[in-house]
Amino acid sequence: MDRYKAHFTSSTSIEGAVVSTFNGGCFFGSLGAGWANDKFGRKRTIQIGCIFALWGGAMQSGASNVATLLVGRIIGGIAIGVLSMTVPLYNTEIAPPKNRGFLVGLTQQMLGIGFIVANWRWLLEVNRDEEAKQVVYQLHGKGNEEAAELEYREMHDTIKAEALVRTRKLSALWSTRPMSRRTFVAVGVQVFCQFTGINVINYFGPTMYESLGVTGSKALLVQGIYGAVGPIANIIFIIFLLDRVGRKKPLIFGASSFVVTFSILAAIVATNPPDSPSSNQAAQR
Prior knowledge:
The chain is mainly alpha-helical. Helix content is about 80%, strand content about 0%. The longest helix has 29 residues, at about 10-40.
């Protein structure tokens, strides 16, 4: 952080802009990814997202002034918006049902590593049925022709039926009660994930720890431990639990855990506010 301040600025408003411009780029990236997925397919959209990621990363790493840094943050945000929407969607559509949760969860571990084949669901949507069938057989491998044919038939019939009633109107997201519920769940999960304050901790964790008296290398150590716990817990969860217990129960358990831990945290901070001369820093830590 000291090097950043020396090279760019120590203004807190600029620091906030560096964070917010990235999130703004994510918003527009995810917004445009829906159109790109239908127009170009999942594979091409992922490749487009990777190009934006390289572009934004290059601008940020080579930035000589704040303006270049902010533009790089916006472009990088667009890339993450595209990829964070498309990669899980792509994995969901090509993964076998028995380990679909593991493969989708693995995105969290290795977003930039993987084997990309032509997305067969999109091929069906654009009436390239034979190519889609070949991809399904390729994904299942030799000796699993029966399972491959069954999955292809089921998805073929579903997609062709959806095409008859498909609409691109935004109002379709809340046109019926079932669609309104689906939209509420999809949007609500993302909104409440942000309400947990996860991005505040990710971006300003060391600053928060310094206000609690954890300074220097110790603050970075705490942030490093925090960053390591998530991937470790995630890989254990997706390997041993996700495909066995389903999706709803983990969501309920995670939300309940947030309520308990954040209630404790809120009580500690309320009774021992940071930077207060009468606060108990040991309790804050």
